[in-house]
Amino acid sequence: MPIELQNVEADKCYVTSSGQVRRVLKVETNITYESRGKDAIRRGEKWNPKQSVRGEKFVAAVDREVTCDYDPNPQVRFLSSANV
Questions:
Q1: Which of 37, 34, 36, 30 is nearest to 5 (CA)?
Q2: How large is the average pLDDT for residues 48-61?
Q3: Confidence (pLDDT) at 45
Q4: Strand segments (E) across the chain
Q5: What is the pLDDT of residue 44?
Q6: What is d(CA 65, CA 79) in angstroms, rounded to the nearest whole number?
Q7: Residue 35 included in any domain
Q8: Percent of residues in the chain assigned helix, strand, coil, to nearest 5
Q9: 61 in any annotated domain
Q10: How many domains does the chain have?
Q11: Does 64 reside within a domain?
């Protein structure tokens, strides 16, 4: 279900169709957010640097609100070479 621009809030997270999670930092004319890829939690990666886009562009790119620790593939595990 699409997100309405007026419902986007700071300190909330939203996911794109590709699994990227975007954490909103500031909502003004533009929306400032930081992001992480769909595998970032399992790899222990941090949030990517903040970006700022027009609100309409942000809502067009996200699918729905999620928790900020959202993992689109929780059952997938990365195997080390020792496990293969």
A1: 30
A2: 96
A3: 85
A4: 13-16, 21-27, 30-36, 51-54, 62-66
A5: 83
A6: 30
A7: yes
A8: 20, 30, 50
A9: yes
A10: 1
A11: yes
